[in-house]
Specification:
- This protein is an alpha/beta fold.
- Helix 3 runs parallel beside helix 4, helix 3 crosses helix 11 and helix 8 runs parallel beside helix 9.
């Protein structure tokens, strides 16, 4: 890749799992707004639930998630009590006939929970919300903490999809990120999950890790593909030691440069494509028969805080410390500080500390960004007609696209925007042209590649 395109790869731009992005959240949005926006959620539109479990057995040095290592399980039990309070408060403030189409347990490490506690938590959610019969119930899991008992708890709770964090199979890379898990361990985990009736398996892989090479990344992709997961998400490591202090353990001189990162990403993508996976968006891959591939084909693919999804729900309610809710009126985020989150719930109060309201222009631009990120194609004329706006609203966006068009990354034909294969790795740069809120301090976002 020449310098002309490397300039885009070096740019720090949002991942656009929301719009406006989390950088626009502010303390002017609080509990009162959250209650009002919850009450605005009405049937027949379904909703999604996200439950955050901010605990891990050990700390992975690459991690950018909101998590902690509890010194005893009592902290976890206390957190679950407050989570129970939040679930009950939320159900009391939302229309009782609203149905849940998706439930996702994230972290942290949800598989860190005691099996009985996981089952009790899932039962509590089902008792407080109405789930559709075909609702997807997904959970993130660490192969190192995936005991037979927790797998049974997943099965008993109706879990339909499990996402396993792999990152890289190379032992040297694993040692440098403090996440040692053998291929055999991962393989056994997959077999045990499928034996328990959980057929849908996701993997997470990463590139740009310390000590990682193109060959290591490619071999990890081959190994992952041979285990035949349904989906594989591929993320670039974001080195932000000023924000995540534990990342200071990772020596910057061991990190690949931008050209090497691109080669690693390409090696993984080409390998997975050769193994029969369908490329979804810019960082997901799925088996041809998976619902994600079907959604990509028929134009119903969506994007939310979990990345690319088949979830059509416009409302996502986040439960737990740091969780973010997407509501008709805007976004709300719970306190990421564990103690302060729990203190609020002890007083039977929501723990929302910030957020951002959305207006009609935000909704218009959110849909434009979503369709570009999912379809690599956007008809601005049709979009404007749907939202009762004129093309003038995108005058600045079309002007910003001019440079990318000159570099062959996007084609603008009147009001139709098409992203050719050459530009798809830079879809975040392209989407940024529609972002009216993009801050000048680009360092707060991850690299485009």
């Amino acid at each position: 890749m020449d310098e002309q395109l490397l300039k885009y790869a070096r740019m720090a731009v949002p991942r656009y799992t929301s719009y406006p992005t989390a950088l626009q959240f502010h303390s002017g949005i609080g509990v009162t707004d959250y209650r009002q926006w919850l009450k605005a959620v009405t049937p027949p539109e379904p909703i999604s639930l996200y439950v955050h479990i901010p605990f891990c057995q050990t700390l992975c040095w690459y991690c950018g998630c909101n998590t902690t290592i509890p010194n005893n399980y009592g902290r976890v039990s206390s957190y679950l009590e407050m989570l129970k309070t939040e679930i009950e408060l939320t159900s009391q403030n939302i229309h009782p006939d609203v149905k849940v189409s998706h439930l996702h347990f994230g972290g942290g490490t949800p598989s860190y929970l005691l099996p009985d506690h996981f089952e009790q938590l899932t039962k509590l959610l089902k008792n407080n919300f109405n789930f559709l019969d075909d609702a997807e119930l997904a959970v993130e899991a660490d192969p190192r903490t995936l005991s037979d008992d927790i797998i049974s708890a997943f099965s008993n709770s109706g879990i339909t999809r499990v996402s396993l964090g792999i990152q890289d199979f190379n032992p040297k890379v694993q040692a440098l990120i403090n996440r040692i898990q053998s291929e055999e361990l991962v393989s056994r985990s997959v077999l045990r999950l499928r034996a328990a009736g959980i057929k849908a398996i996701n993997f997470d892989l990463m590139y740009g890790l310390p000590g990682q090479t193109v060959e290591a990344a490619q071999q990890s992709a081959i190994t992952a593909a041979q285990l035949k997961p349904d989906r594989i998400a591929v993320f670039g490591y974001a080195h932000v030691p000023w924000f995540k202090k534990h990342q200071r353990v990772i020596r910057s001189d061991l990190l690949p440069d931008i050209k090497e990162r691109i080669k690693q990403a390409d090696a993984i993508a080409h390998t997975l494509s050769d193994e029969g996976f369908i490329r979804i968006g810019f960082d997901h891959f799925a088996q041809p028969g998976d619902s994600l591939s079907i959604a990509e084909k028929n134009g119903t693919l969506r994007r939310n805080f979990q990345g690319y999804t088949t979830d059509k729900a416009q409302t996502l309610i986040g439960l737990g410390a740091s969780s973010i809710s997407t509501l008709p009126g805007g976004y709300c985020q719970n306190d990421p500080h564990l103690g302060q989150y729990m203190s609020a719930l002890k007083d039977k109060k929501f723990a929302v500390v910030k957020g951002v309201a959305v207006d009609d222009d935000d909704r218009l631009r959110r849909e434009a960004i979503n369709r570009l990120m999912c379809d690599f194609n956007l008809n601005l004329q049709e979009l404007c007609q749907t939202y009762h706006r004129t093309l003038d609203v995108f005058e600045d966006s079309l002007s910003s696209l001019k440079l990318l068009q000159d570099d062959g990354l996007v084609v603008v034909d009147r009001a139709v925007i098409t992203v050719p294969p050459r530009g798809r790795r830079f879809i975040r740069n392209i989407a940024a042209c529609f972002d009216q809120h993009l801050l000048q301090d680009q360092k707060k976002h991850s690299l485009a590649v």
